[in-house]
Amino acid sequence: MSPLRARAPQFSSPEFRTALGMFATGVTIVTARAQDGQLVGLTANSFNSVSLSPPLVLWSLAQAASTMDAFRQGSHYAINILGADQQALALRFATRGVDRFADVDFVEGACGAPLLAGAVATFECFNRSRYVEGDHVIFVGEVEHCAHRAGASPLLYHGGKFYAEHPL
């Protein structure tokens, strides 16, 4: 008996991407210090909690990303949840070929990963496990330190646009 498999998609990649964009998310910048000492970071909205005990979070990165080796080989990284006033920072860390850390205010976390000033929350993570799925790698981090700014408004992303949070 053959194993069950998903049916072939009945939509295009752009249609799938557009539909995914209808899920409103927060915006993060994932940062690390590579083994050669270089700072690496990228904008990501693929962040989620996994477990409270032990404290686990996840995020994903395209296998073709230029920062893949640094994150795959590194022992630690930080997830910085951006504030509503950090749209320019989100765009910079999503841009290729620029010095993403130029003039960026940060402090070094306990394990070397940059913690960005103004972030509404930070999670310093041990690089616990990685899972290859499709064209991405899912990183599961065990949170060793976390902090947040009470009352701070997050930066949100929906339908290809940035938004600031407004309570109902």
Automatic annotation (TrEMBL):
Signal peptide residues on this chain, from the entry's feature table: none
Ranges of residues in domain Flavin reductase like: 20-164
Matching InterPro entries: Flavin_Rdtase-like_dom, NADH-dep_flavin_reductase, Split_barrel_FMN-bd
UniProt similarity note: Belongs to the non-flavoprotein flavin reductase family.
Protein's UniProt name: p-hydroxyphenylacetate 3-hydroxylase, reductase component
Keywords, comma-separated and alphabetical: Oxidoreductase
Coiled coil: none
